[in-house]
């Protein structure tokens, strides 16, 4: 059974937590004791209905304020697949939580309050789906019950969103508009009676039918080495395997591979999943690879198939979302983490920042502040083996780490 990763986004009070709680409730993913606890909590809050948002707002501060602060990872399943939802905050000051929560998603659900239409956070959150190249976006026009399930209001917001795009759609990104009422379960797990004018999929139907595997295995093959296995036991006196997770593409026994940075070539002898030999290892699969030749390969290095080489770069252009309260300025030194490879790096130049409200590029930036997105140039002490993010998102992202505090201060993509 495959796993679909989803990120939710939207402004404050657009109903993200309620929508997720409704999905959990209607897929029978809530235990009886937890449902009873939520019913008691709803009564304490003086509510006439069961507040399903309490299923996801786990922090005390969240329940007291009725907002989402932290990134909550929610798990539920249907007979067809498993789901992991990153329920991310809507407040501007928690944009960094949204971008980290969405970094591994195949689907983004952007909620819009049917009463308010497009707001500033809608621009910001949709831009992040483009920055992270999330292939599927569901724009859920929520709280349709508060506008009398108006088809005209739905069409108006859908057109407003299309105007927001202004021809900036990614060709590989699919956008679907769904009118919903999370509070009453309209168009969540079944078609809405109140909105019979809508002839598209309800939300769960949309999620169940997304196909996302096809493109993963056709990406360039990348295997970052995490650990070198040398048991030196009587049963395996000469065993030398390389453990890691396939970042993208496929590796098969007999493939010719190149080891970076040594550039030595060899052929894959065996591939193991746990202790069992397998014919191939696919994207996202942890494996141990053995080679027919003794070559120099250690943690932080990378195996790639010979026909899909990767660039070894020390000077790179990137787009970054800044996560630290102290602004980013040119000349600062950081640690750059790319996969298993961690190197010293200097930000040599700031080229621009992005005005999220209209997607305009503001040239000549002197600093990039908290939650801002901008373009930078970086020089690393040693090469990293990165693809451009638009070509291979699984090998084109990195983080910047403050050397003093060891905090993650930036999330970037290679452009």
Number of strands: 23
Indicate how many domains the architecture comprises: 3
What global shape is seen? globular
Element string (H = helix, E = strand): EHHHEEHEHEHEHEEEEEEEEEEEEEEEEE
End-to-end span in angstroms? 34 Å
Unreliable sequence segments: 59-69
Rounded average pLDDT:
88
Q: Under the CATH scheme, which architecture of the largest domain would be assigned?
A: 3-Layer(aba) Sandwich
Would you give the CATH topology of the largest domain?
Rossmann fold
Topology:
Blueprint: E1 3-10, H1 16-26, H2 32-44, H3 60-65, E2 72-77, E3 82-87, H4 95-101, E4 107-113, H5 120-131, E5 136-142, H6 151-165, E6 174-179, H7 203-208, E7 222-224, E8 227-229, E9 241-245, E10 250-252, E11 256-260, E12 264-273, E13 276-278, E14 280-282, E15 286-291, E16 302-305, E17 311-322, E18 333-338, E19 341-355, E20 360-363, E21 373-386, E22 397-401, E23 408-414
Parallel strand pairs: 1-3, 1-4, 4-5, 5-6
Antiparallel strand pairs: 2-3, 7-16, 8-9, 9-15, 10-14, 11-12, 11-16, 12-13, 12-15, 17-21, 17-23, 18-19, 18-22, 19-20, 19-21, 22-23
State the main characteristics.
415 residues; alpha+beta; Rossmann fold; Elongation Factor Tu (Ef-tu), domain 3; 3 domains; 6-stranded mixed β-sheet
């Amino acid at each position: 059974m495959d796993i679909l990763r989803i990120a939710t986004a939207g402004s404050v009070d657009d109903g993200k937590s309620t929508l997720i709680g409704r999905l959990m409730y209607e897929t029978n993913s809530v235990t009886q004791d937890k449902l009873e606890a939520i019913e008691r909590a709803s009564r304490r809050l003086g509510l006439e209905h069961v507040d399903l948002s309490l299923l996801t707002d786990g922090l005390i501060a969240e329940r007291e304020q009725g907002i989402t602060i932290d990134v909550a990872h929610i798990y539920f399943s249907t007979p067809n697949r498993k789901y992991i939802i990153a329920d991310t905050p809507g407040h501007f000051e928690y944009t960094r939580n949204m971008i980290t929560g969405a970094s591994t998603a195949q689907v983004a659900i952007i909620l819009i309050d049917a009463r308010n239409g497009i707001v500033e956070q809608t621009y910001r959150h949709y831009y992040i789906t483009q920055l992270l190249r999330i292939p599927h976006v569901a724009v859920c026009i929520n709280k349709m019950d508060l506008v009398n399930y108006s088809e005209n209001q739905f069409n108006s917001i859908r057109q407003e969103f299309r105007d927001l795009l202004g021809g900036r759609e990614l060709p590989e990104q699919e956008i679907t508009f769904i009118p919903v009422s999370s509070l009453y379960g309209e168009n969540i797990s079944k078609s809405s009676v109140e909105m019979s004018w809508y002839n598209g999929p309800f939300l769960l139907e949309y999620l169940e039918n997304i196909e996302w595997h096809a493109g993963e295995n056709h990406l360039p093959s990348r295997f970052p080495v995490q650990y070198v296995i040398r048991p030196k036991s009587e049963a395996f006196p000469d065993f030398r395997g390389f453990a890691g997770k396939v970042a993208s593409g496929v590796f098969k026994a007999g493939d010719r591979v190149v080891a970076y940075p040594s550039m030595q070539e060899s052929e894959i002898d065996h591939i193991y999943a746990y202790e069992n030999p397998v014919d191939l290892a696919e994207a996202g699969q942890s494996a141990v690879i053995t080679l027919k030749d003794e070559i120099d390969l250690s943690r932080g290095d990378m195996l790639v198939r010979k026909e899909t080489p990767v660039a070894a770069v020390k000077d790179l252009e990137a787009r970054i979302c800044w996560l630290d309260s102290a602004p980013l300025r040119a000349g600062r030194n950081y640690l750059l983490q790319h996969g298993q490879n961690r190197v010293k790096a200097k930000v040599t130049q700031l080229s621009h920042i992005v005005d999220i409200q209209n997607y305009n590029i503001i040239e000549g930036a002197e600093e990039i502040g908290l939650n801002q997105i901008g373009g930078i140039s970086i020089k690393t002490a040693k090469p990293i083996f990165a693809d451009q993010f638009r070509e291979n998102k699984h090998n084109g992202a990195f983080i910047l780490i403050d050397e003093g505090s060891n905090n993650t201060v930036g999330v970037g993509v290679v452009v």
